[in-house]
Design brief:
- With about 90 residues, the protein is mainly β.
- The strands form 2 sheets. Strands 1-4-5 form a 3-stranded antiparallel β-sheet, with no helix packed on it.
C-alpha cells in the first residue's frame, strides 16, 4: 500500500471595475452622478475557484480518488449616494 497523495489548485480574481452598469439618472442635482448619470463605475467583483484531489491506495491494484471543485463569485454594486448615506452608509463603518 502506497502513500496517500493530495493536490490542491486555487485561483482568485478581484476587479475594481468588474461590470459597470447603467443606472437611472439621479433626481438630486447635487448628486455627483448628475453630470454623467448613466454609468455606475467601481462595481467590484471577486471570483474564487478551488480544486482538490485526494488519491488513496487500497492495495497494490486498487486506488480510490476523490475530486472536488468549489467556485464562488461575489459582486458589489457601488453607488456613491448610498455609500455616504447617513443611515445605511457602509462608507461610515
Amino acid at each position: 500500500m502506497g502513500p496517500v497523495r493530495f493536490f490542491v489548485a486555487a485561483e482568485a480574481q478581484a476587479r475594481i471595475d468588474d461590470d459597470p452598469v447603467h443606472a437611472p439618472a439621479p433626481s438630486d442635482s447635487l448628486d455627483p452622478r448628475a453630470s454623467e448619470p448613466w454609468l455606475l463605475p467601481h462595481n467590484s467583483g471577486e471570483h474564487h475557484d478551488v480544486l482538490g484531489k485526494v488519491t488513496v491506495p487500497l492495495g497494490t491494484q486498487q486506488v480510490v480518488r476523490f475530486t472536488g471543485i468549489v467556485s464562488d463569485a461575489q459582486r458589489l454594486l457601488f453607488d456613491p449616494v448610498l455609500k455616504y448615506h447617513p443611515t445605511w452608509a457602509p462608507g461610515s463603518d
